[in-house]
Amino acid sequence: xxxxxxxxxxxxxxxxxxxxxxxxxxxxxxxxxxxxxxxxxxxxxxxxxxxxxxxxxxxxxxxxxxxxxxxxxxxxxxxxxxxxxxxxxxxxxxxxxxxxxxxxxxxxxxxxxxxxxxxxxxxxxxxxxxxxxxxxxxxxxxxxxxxxxxxxxxxxxxxxxxxxxxxxxxxxxxxxxxxxxxxxxxxxxxxxxxxxxxxxxxxxxxxxxxxxxxxxxxxxxxxxxxxxxxxxxxxxxxxxxxxxxxxxxxxxxxxxxxxxxxxxxxxxxxxxxxxxxxxxxxxxxxxxxxxxxxxxxxxxxxxxxxxxxxxxxxxxxxxxxxxxxxxxxxxxxxxxxxxxxxxxxxxxxxxxxxxxxxxxxxxxxxxxxxxxxxxxxxxxxxxxxxxxxxxxxxxxxxxxxxxxxxxxxxxxxxxxxxxxxxxxxxxxxxxxxxxxxxxxxxxxxxxxxxxxxxxxxxxxxxxx
Length: 464
Prior knowledge:
There is one protein chain. With 464 residues, this protein is of the alpha/beta class. It has a single domain (14-461), classed as TIM Barrel (Alpha-Beta Barrel). The protein is 39% helix and 15% strand. It has 15 helices and 15 strands. It has helices at 21-24, 37-42, 60-74, 85-88, 98-113, 129-133, 141-157, 170-178, 190-215, 237-260, 265-270, 284-288, 342-355, 389-407, 450-461, and strands at residues 14-18, 78-82, 117-123, 163-168, 221-225, 230-232, 294-298, 303-306, 325-326, 360-365, 374-376, 384-386, 412-418, 437-440, 445-448. An eight-stranded parallel β-barrel has the order 1-2-3-4-5-7-10-13. Strands 6-8-9 form a three-stranded mixed beta sheet, with helices on one face. A two-stranded antiparallel sheet has the order 11-12. Strand 14 (437-440) and strand 15 form a beta hairpin. Helix 3 packs parallel to helix 5 (98-113) and helix 14 (389-407) runs parallel beside helix 15. It is globular. The two termini are 16 Å apart. The model has no long low-confidence stretch (mean pLDDT 95).
């Protein structure tokens, strides 16, 4: 029987933390960087909750030595970061920006010098704007341009990267970017959203092949999916059917092509009237279905769904024809309005490990936003910090959930806390804070939180 008082992790378990380029880097107009879709989206009035942008963000472009020192102090063995595509290929035509490559070389070198393995995401939502002007992810050519970009990174940085992650949460890129318009580029067209689903899948497959063509057996390939845990509201057939539909569009549109080389026919049936699927060409599924070394899973909360007609929500943005209603979350909610259900993480890990028993899994994001307050307190480094007991509790309970899955046989090899720093939270701007380290956006001072110190203790103990 597992002892709930102390749950231990394997000795070779990877402990990490994570950020994304647009959310932390800043330096939007330096060293030849071009515009991304998020730069343009932020300039559109009303798109971002506080009217902010990523021009400065956490200024990590300049302050990465300080942030790496914080990671070393925290004890993490890996850092999940993303490369900004507009820094590498800033203009249409494909010319490579050497200053962008040089920046990431310096970052990766410093991580390695400090014993921190780089896990590099190639695409964390900052599509070059010139590609969007040609159709973005609704345009098949974007997948090929992505493969070209992946090949450039593999050649330039391949000796420094421990794991390559092709895409982060393509669900968000497709459905929020092209379906309900809540994310950049802000398009509301579910036909385009489904085309984007397929072209993101294709980009994953082409990108994985491009990296392996450059690096051979040295290439360690992953993808990060925000697989949803959808709970049916009851055993009523309509509610169970709603869960099935939610699972198809949230999870199976990625897992099927990437891991089995097929789209479930029920997806085509459920999307009738939205698209004719003419963007899927002969041979595409073979291109998409590439060997994975590890599957990254982002998890924050569960969805409870019912079988009633109603408008989509950000959590379930498919249109009313989908007959899926996401019900209001219950229980104590985070500052994002999300529920807290650690058992959902255990269930998800067990389910995925059961379906794909030979595949290593890694939690690539998990964390919570709360309303933080800075306190003067000599127990913190620098004499001030944030007491965040709710974030500490969330962290501990979700790590318990991971440990329970491991003890039950799930192949979980690592955990990356989201996020190292408070940062630009996409359409919510700087109004929500997920960091283990607080950022004072006026001064760029980094301030420890209890959760950051607690995470350091968990890493040291390899137990919670």
